[in-house]
Amino acid sequence: MWQSKPVLLLLLLAVTTAATSGKPLLTKITKGAASTALYTAPLSAGRPLVLDLSAPAITTPCSGQTTTVTLSANSTDGSNPLSPVSFAATATCAAAPSGAVGVAGLARSSASFPAQVASTQKVANSFALCLPSDGRTGFSGNGVGAAIFGGGPFFLAPPADRPSITTLLSDGVPLRQPFAGNPGYFVTATNGIAIDGTRVTVSGSGALVVGLSTTIPYAQLRSDVYRPFITAFDRAMGSSAKVAAVKPFELCYDSSKLAPTRFGYLVPNVWT
Asked: What domain range is 156 assigned to?
């Protein structure tokens, strides 16, 4: 039996298929308000489309079944935005999520956004997401991320980090799809779960299959995984920043007491 529990999730994902030629497309990613926590990209004439890993198509409000839309982004060399690029894409008619004009489906489908970028721009059917950890911008926030569609290389500043980020994105855990009828992306945690290098002992049976989502704001864990996980995380985190829990959360921390990094707050690393 599954028991939904909230756990903060920061995702860095790359999905890659055969490469061709041409320049990849780059767009910024922002995170919405806490009520939705949806990730959007300004792909429709500067207006936001929700990025959805489990959606098989581009969708927009319209009459009928499908329509043609004009989408746009910037070409990139992997480190800088270059010239603006506009292209026509086929979209399925559906209601738009709150605060957006449609959905950019990222699932493995010929109608998905990455697949249509690949066919129109003659680039690889691939994408990489670096998701912002919160909805705040400016010095105190980590509110802007990036998406690259069409292949690498993938660079992050400063230059010393470039080899490591490219290696990280090209040597990731193989993705499986579909699982339980869901068209999204999943990984099997064959080595279990580890927090700061210490393995978390889970008593339940069955493979630990991890589903990746950009529309569910918090990770959902099986009950047999949740309890040992938060116990181990609490131990690794320590009590210096811990505060009284606020429902629905069971562990809460004062962010002003957490050291910031370019990738979010300095907290224990979780590996699967």
From this structure: 12-170
Q: Give the residue-averaged pLDDT of 173-201.
A: 71
Residue 148 has pLDDT above 80, yes or no: yes
Residue 116 lies in a domain: yes
Q: Write b or e for each residue in 59-93: b if 16 or more Cβ atoms lie within 10 A of its Cβ, otherwise e.
A: bbeeeeeebebebebbbbebeeeeeebeeebebbe
For residue 60, give the CATH number of its domain: 2.40.70.10
Three-state SS string over 140-152 comes to CCCCEEEEEECCC
Residue 24 lies in a domain: yes
Is residue 65 in some structural domain?
Answer: yes
- Identity of the residue numbered 9: L
> In the block, which residue shows the tokens 């690029």?
85
Residue with token string 């919405």 = 32
SS3 181: coil
